[in-house]
Amino acid sequence: MKSLVGNPTVELTTDKTVFDVITSSIKSSDQEEPFIVADLADIVYKFKLWKLKMPRVEPFYAVKCNDAPTVLHLLAALGTGFDCASKNEIESVLSIGVEPERIIYANPCKTRGFIRHAANVGVKMMTFDNEMELHKVKAHHPDAELVIRIRVDDSSSICQLGVKFGCNVKDVPHLLQVAKELDLNVIGVSFHVGSNCQDSGAYSSAIVSCRHIFDIAEDIGYHMDFLDIGGGFPGFKGPYVSFEEICNVVAESLDEHFPPESGVRIIAEPGRYFVASAFTLCTNIIAKRETFSEDGEPICMYYVNDGVYGSFNCLMFDHAEVEPIPLVDPKYRPVVKSSIWGPTCDSLDCIMKTCDLPSLNVSEWMMFENMGAYTISAASTFNGFQKPEMRCILPLHVMKYLQSLPTWANLLEAFGDQVLDFSNANVSTDCDITNGNTDNIHLLPHRESVSA
């Protein structure tokens, strides 16, 4: 078990919210660099909510979404599996003590060397969607447990993946026949409705297709017992489909087509669901320019110290929408037409082309909520600007819950000296939501409390 890379600050607290930590941080005279506050309690809450709403579906966290060591350590301690797409992701997960049986190599198109590496470290489950992949697996990992990935309707998702991955259902018989001739073990089917799905019905239609493929496989001589329903689950509340709505649709479809007595193991690959709402980014205004738009309207250009080459790469790669929250008292400040720019020397580095903000000054702060998904994992240090430092908060009552898990020793070793001895602290261990009790889980502050 390795300790956390980069040693992010972990603050144990009984009553502080993310906003409390942010406000105390920005009051420090030497705080100027951007920083992220991660609410680990939010991730624990999401895990327990998943187990409550979809107890039949094992979550295999999509590492590519956010590979922060703190996140991986926490989810490993909670007992999730991991969806990895490369050799390095597999190594990251194995290095924190996760067994290879808890990993699915969910990249249908892999390099030969990566396939050999998976074989060497004992990772057997892996996806495929084409005939050439079967021949590579036969040559380099003949004992693999293969999962055929099919293309399903992802038209209702923000990020559509079917254009790149997933075989057409009509091609499944041929691929399964080739696998049979190569004496390869195909254990099941996977699909992905696209990242950030906006239509719960996409899951039900995909599950129907999987049932059809299970029947096809039976005729070819494969008795499948594994189903991977992919990702697409929302990570924060929005105007579209809710996590609860998706859970209801998935549960109903699974009960109809893959009931418990079928013996089929069911997993999913949630990414943003676990981490999106847990991360809040704070940026400092490093410069301000007052100019005019093409139609002569005055506009304030604010330059902050993180941008699209850093955490805001989500604007380009994940089609994200962000909302700036000025950390100032808005009283007596006129609202002005504004734009927000990153710190690099590239004009592409624009966070928001237009928005309405109270008049702000250099050295003041903005925060952005819901910044945990596809942000820091793809951030670069272009132009020499460093990635934001990360600070984590963990209420004592949630830590008490983690202490009750059999994996506590591993998590304690990971956090190291940052976790204080609080064994005699008088705090409740009740952070169980199995009876609908969510009161003891500290979530991000509500928008109204931030703007006050």
Automatic annotation (TrEMBL):
The keyword Membrane does not apply. GO terms for biological process: putrescine biosynthetic process from arginine, via ornithine. Keywords: Lyase, Polyamine biosynthesis, Pyridoxal phosphate. Pathway: Amine and polyamine biosynthesis; putrescine biosynthesis via L-ornithine pathway; putrescine from L-ornithine: step 1/1. One of its GO terms (cellular component) is cytoplasm. Residues 40-276 form the Orn/DAP/Arg decarboxylase 2 N-terminal domain. GO terms for molecular function: ornithine decarboxylase activity. Its EC number is 4.1.1.17. PROSITE patterns: ODR_DC_2_1, ODR_DC_2_2. It catalyses: L-ornithine + H(+) = putrescine + CO2. It is an enzyme of class 4 (lyase). Pfam families: Orn_Arg_deC_N. InterPro entries: Ala_racemase/Decarboxylase_C, De-COase2_CS, De-COase2_N, De-COase2_pyr-phos_BS, Orn/DAP/Arg_de-COase, Orn_de-COase, PLP-binding_barrel. The active site is at C345 (proton donor). The modification N6-(pyridoxal phosphate)lysine is found at K64. Belongs to the Orn/Lys/Arg decarboxylase class-II family. Homodimer. Only the dimer is catalytically active, as the active sites are constructed of residues from both monomers. Catalyzes the first and rate-limiting step of polyamine biosynthesis that converts ornithine into putrescine, which is the precursor for the polyamines, spermidine and spermine. Polyamines are essential for cell proliferation and are implicated in cellular processes, ranging from DNA replication to apoptosis. This is ornithine decarboxylase. It comes from Araneus ventricosus. The gene is ODC1_8.
